[in-house]
Amino acid sequence: MALFSPLPNLALDSNRQAAPKKNAYANCHHTIPPASELSTIILGGGLAGLASGYVLSEAGLKVTVFEGAPTVGGLSKTVSHNGFLFDLGGHRFLTNNKEIEKFVLRILQGEVLNVPRRSKIYLLNKYFDYPLKPINAFFGLGLGTTSKIVADYCKERIKNTFSPPAIVSLEDWVVSQFGRKMFDIYFRDYSEKVWGINCQQISQEWVAQRIQGLSLWAAVKNAFCKLSGKNLLTLSDDFFYPTMGIGQLSDRLQEGIENHNPVSTSTRITAIRHDSARITEVTAVNCHGQKILTGDEFISSIPLTQLVELLDPPPPAEIINAARSLKYRDLIIVTLMLNREQVTDLTWMYLPGKDIPFGRIHEPKNWSPRMAPPGQTHIVAEFFCFKDDAIWKETDERLQAMTTEHLVKLGFINQDEVIDCCILRLQKAYPIFEVGYQAHYDAIMKYLKEFANLQVVGRSGKFKYFNMDHAMESGIEAANTIISKTVTTKHLREASRSDPRLSTNLASQIQS
Ligand SMILES: Cc1cc2nc3c(=O)[nH]c(=O)nc-3n(C[C@H](O)[C@H](O)[C@H](O)COP(=O)(O)OP(=O)(O)OC[C@H]3O[C@@H](n4cnc5c(N)ncnc54)[C@H](O)[C@@H]3O)c2cc1C
Predict the structure, then answer these.
(1) Same domain, 332 and 427
(2) Is the shortest distance between the CB of 89 and ligand 1 below 6 Å?
């Protein structure tokens, strides 16, 4: 994919300049906006929306980004708390897309580290390297369990050769690839902890989206079958990380946009009006009141389900019902600040056990030494949950006590080392791919496609399991589509000087 598509050469060929038919303009309501006024409204200032805004701003176009939160970055932001910095769950940057890598490195202007990855997973009361390493796994699991894993794996391979199973769920896929024993030990608990639903209900389409970038099972396969995961990013031994946390990337994108255009934070979009298959205006609300804003192009990175609910007039009932059938997983981030130099040398620790209320921890200092004040460190724990769960409604004091208690029990910290705590609750952290979600998703996307000047981008926006690179890629693609349209419009303006009727006709074709 070309991220920065060269401006198309729009010299009209002789066929397109053919004289228009009589009455061709009679019912045309479109006008060509002057190029300088062609404006884009971007909903959401996470990485996807910011990447769109940045590319459009660099191309000299008029853009306004609206972000509901007080700061940009969405899920990829870094929180600053009494001298400690932390992401909303550690965010490593890695990609197979060289253009995105170049884009990110250019934005970060050298303020980036190459971090070695060292992760572990806590299984059966033991710590294993993550991704699993054969020797470590063999000695950790013991001969009996390893033999059972290998036997189950062979059984599935033979079974699949003669009668390939129907693959509907995550469980079907993992069992068919790795055997029942490996599923039971390695996959079931962590997957169910992350998604909050039974593995039989997690759609195999999630595997299809995830496998490109990360897979627990690719890691296992790599360990047991010695298959190298060249293109499997999760097996990568290192990653990029900005010196001051992942939020530096969003902050730099915001600065780049603000050199030319406004980024309006603490401003929520509360309605999206449309007419004749075009978005016409949005209502933006902030502490100063509300404003109705018109635009020519609209890019939405807000959750897909919310976009549907904000449309005015509302979509047909079946589209609203489809949106209500799509679910997201929420997240609580508990960060304990510690009066201690360092706890581990790890980037991540995975904790699948159901007796531990959080699923993953990380120590930001091991990602960049500038994340904690000298002589101190902090641990960030991720509680995967739904906002209707009891845990979401727990008091901050209880969440702090619970996190401390478990980290003490696991032997990571001592209670008296805890000097501070910060608790954040994030809604819609993960789109959930439940068996059957695809039909709802397809119906929504088909409906939204009707809007000629609306593009949806990003992880929540497209309801895709996007990492940062894919979120930005989708934003940049949307920007490039608009740049191409603008160049076409500009050219039409030039053409209109010689024949105004010609430009109107072509503009109507472009805009429809
Ligand atoms: C715990 C966790 C760990 C992760 N780790 C990694 C990792 O290591 N590497 C990686 O590459 N990716 C990681 N990701 C994924 C990464 O966070 C996302 O891919 C990326 O941040 C998505 O960006 P986005 O702009 O698409 O969406 P978002 O970040 O969700 O941005 C959407 C924005 O829209 C705003 N918004 C919503 N409604 C409105 C409204 N009505 N009006 C105005 N604004 C609105 C929101 O406030 C938000 O800022 C992780 C995600 C999570 C949850």
Answers:
(1) yes
(2) yes
Taking 50 as the pLDDT cut, the residues of the chain under it are 1-36, 212-216, 226-230, 502-512
Q: Is there a single domain that holds both residue 498 and residue 381? A: no
Residues 6 or more apart whose CB falls under 8 angstroms from that of 355 comprise none
Cα–Cα separations (whole angstroms), residue 343 to 123, 225, 414, 512 = 20, 33, 10, 59
Whole-structure pTM value: 0.87
CATH at residue 503: 3.50.50.60
Mention every residue, 6+ apart, whose C-beta is less than 8 A from residue 479: 51, 52, 53, 54, 55, 56, 59, 299
Q: Is the CB of 45 under 6 A from ligand 1?
A: yes
In a domain, 22, yes or no: no
Asked if 356 and 319 sit in the same domain, the reply is no
d(CA 166, CA 169): 9
Structural domain harbouring 320? 35-74+243-326+435-511
Of 432, 450, 467, the last residue of a domain is 432
Residue 493 is encoded by which pair of tokens? 């303006």
In a domain, 448, yes or no: yes
Q: How far apart are CA 348 and CA 219, in angstroms?
A: 15
Query: Is the C-beta atom of 362 inside 6 A of ligand 1?
Result: no
Residue with tokens 């598509």: 5
Q: Domain for residue 26, yes or no?
A: no
The minimum-distance atom of ligand 1 relative to the CA of 429 is 53
- Residue 325 C-alpha to ligand 1 middle, in angstroms? 21
Domain count, the chain: 3
268 lines ligand 1 (CB under 6 A): yes
298 and 446, same domain (yes or no): yes
Residue nearest to ligand 1 atom 38, measured at CA: 302
Residue 15 included in any domain: no
Report the separation in Å between the CA atom of 48 and the middle of ligand 1, taken as the mean of its atom positions: 8
Does ligand 1 lie within 6 Å of residue 326's CB atom?
no
pLDDT in tens, 33-54: 343 456 999 999 999 999 999 9
The 10 Å Cβ neighbour count of residue 199 is: 19
- Per-residue confidence (pLDDT) for residue 473, from 0 to 100: 98
Q: Is 431 in the pocket of ligand 1 (CB under 6 A)?
A: no
User: If you take atom 12 of ligand 1, which residue's CA is the nearest one?
Assistant: 467
483 shares a domain with 351: no
What's the rounded Cα separation, in Å, for the pair 366 and 347? 6
In a shared domain, residues 318 and 333: no
